[in-house]
Structures are given as structure tokens and as C-alpha cells.
Amino acid sequence: MEIDVFTLFPPAFAWFEGQRHVANAIAAGARLEYVDYRDHTPLRSGQVDDTPFGGGAGMVLRVDVVEAAMRARYGRDPVELASERRVIALTPGGRVLDDALVDELAAEPALTLLCGRYEGFDERVLEHMVSDRLSIGRYVLAGGELAAMVVCDAVLRKLPGALGHEGSVVEESFSAALGGAPEYPHYTRPAEHRGWRVPDVLLSGHHARIREWRLEQSRMRGDAETE
Ligand SMILES: C[S@@+](CC[C@H](N)C(=O)[O-])C[C@H]1O[C@@H](n2cnc3c(N)ncnc32)[C@H](O)[C@@H]1O
After folding, report:
1. Which residues are CB-contacts of 102 (< 8 A; sequence separation ≥ 6)?
2. Coil, strand or helix: which one is 182?
3. Pocket residues: Cβ below 6 A from ligand 1
4. Which tens digit of pLDDT belongs to each residue from 190-216?
5. 136-173 pLDDT, tens per residue?
6. Which of 95, 140, 146 to mutate to test the pocket of ligand 1 (most atoms within 8 A of CB)?
């Protein structure tokens, strides 16, 4: 898996890269690299944005700046690139990220994530230079960097070698193994704290019953969500 993140703030990802599962995924062969739009802007003084036509608040990330950065990275027309590679604009109004989309992205050999800032992208970026528009939820962040980290986190932890226990990603909230429902509850020692006891079935050592109880808990949580 190769991921290129286009951003105005590459240093924002330093903490993220230090996370164990991210470092593991990279050690296992994943590649995470950054392209700073500002390094490739054709405009003077590192300009990347401009005022919106029609007036209004804020600044807009320019289409020629995004194109220049993509051409510098890939050596080709981004319009053609978007038909061959997942080029994903992070934008609040996009398709909302869920586990099925994460699985889809984790199966790709390469991803490009475009982080917006200010009022967002000039619409022509979204119309002509990307294959996907992706939102991490129906709220607005100041920039696409946190959204890119969310996508990378969710995707990288699905890759072999990222987590200590490969099974962790097979059966967890929203996975096919749980029928898309949230995961069942977990408990650890002590078995009792302030009178709050761990359910007896989990202490029984009876694996079939434990399994049945967990699946039932997961189903109940799923039902509660849809009510
Ligand atoms: C302040 S936002 C722009 C919001 C835009 N004016 C709007 O109302 O939809 C700046 C950038 O942050 C990123 N961003 C903000 N919220 C996001 C979300 N929920 N999902 C994905 N990206 C988001 C996008 O890259 C966006 O271009």
C-alpha cells in the first residue's frame, strides 16, 4: 500500500507516524509520503489560495496549485490519473467513511489523499482531478489533515503486520464477522470492582456459551442503534 498525502502541513503527521500500528505497517512495507502544495505552487511567494469569485468569506485552495503539485508528484495529467488510481479529496460533503469503505480502500495498491484548508478546494479540483470525495463525518474541521490521519489509521490497521493480533480486525465493530453490528463488551481483571461484577458467563470457561453470549450482545447493540 502506497499513500501520498497532499497537504500544506506535512509536519502535522509526525505524531501520527509514531503510532505503533502505523510504524508497524510501514515496517511491513506500506509507504506514507507527503507532498506540500506550497513546494510546487506556480505562484509567487508561496501563494496557494485566493479569494472566492462572487465574494464571501475565506479563501479557496486554487485548482492550478493542486494541479501543479499533482503533476510534480506523478509527472502526468491529474485528470488521467484519477481514472486509474484512487485520488481522494477530503471534504465534509463527501461519501461518509465507514468500515466497508475502509475495506475497499485497504484493498487498493495506492491511494492519494488531498487535504483541503480554508474554505476548501476550488470546485474544479473535485470535478476533474479526483476519483472520490470522502468525509469523515457530518461536521467541519479546519483542515483535511486530521481527516487524512483518520483514513490512514483505519486503512493501515487493516493491513497484515500492523496490529499485534491479526484477529483483532476480523471481528470488531461493524465487521462482516459481526454482521455489521458494534462489537460485544470486553472485561479484564479485576473480576469485581466496587461491586461491578464481570458477567458470570465470561468466567465460566465455557467457550461455546461465551461465543453465543458475545454474538448476542453484539446483535443487541446493533438493534439498539437501529431503534
Ligand atoms: C474548513 S473546511 C472547508 C469547509 C467547507 N467550506 C464546507 O463548508 O464544506 C477545510 C478543509 O478541511 C477538510 N475537512 C473539514 N471537515 C471535514 C470532514 N468532515 N471530512 C473530511 N474533510 C474535512 C477538507 O479538506 C476541507 O477542504
Report:
1. 151, 154, 155, 158
2. coil
3. 90-93, 115-117, 119-121, 135-137, 139-144, 147
4. 999 999 999 999 999 999 999 999 999
5. 999 999 999 999 999 999 999 999 999 987 777 888 99
6. 140
- Ligand 1 centroid to 75 CA: how many Å? 27
Q: Are β-strands 86-96 and 60-61 bridged in parallel, bridged antiparallel, or unpaired?
A: unpaired
Helix (H) or strand (E) holding 217: helix 207-226
Cell 450482545: give the residue. Answer: 217
96 Cα to the center of ligand 1, angstroms: 12
78 alpha carbon to ligand 1 midpoint, in Å?
Answer: 21
List C-alpha distances in Å: 160 to 25, 97, 168.
7, 21, 11
Q: What is the pTM of this model?
A: 0.96
Question: Counting every residue, how long is the chain?
Answer: 227
Distance, in Å, from the CA atom of 16 to the CA atom of 13, rounded to the nearest integer, reads 5
Q: What pLDDT digit, counting tens, does each position of 29-53 carry? A: 999 999 999 999 999 999 999 999 9
Q: How far is CA 172 from the centre of its chain?
A: 17
d(CA 146, CA 124) in angstroms, rounded, equals: 23
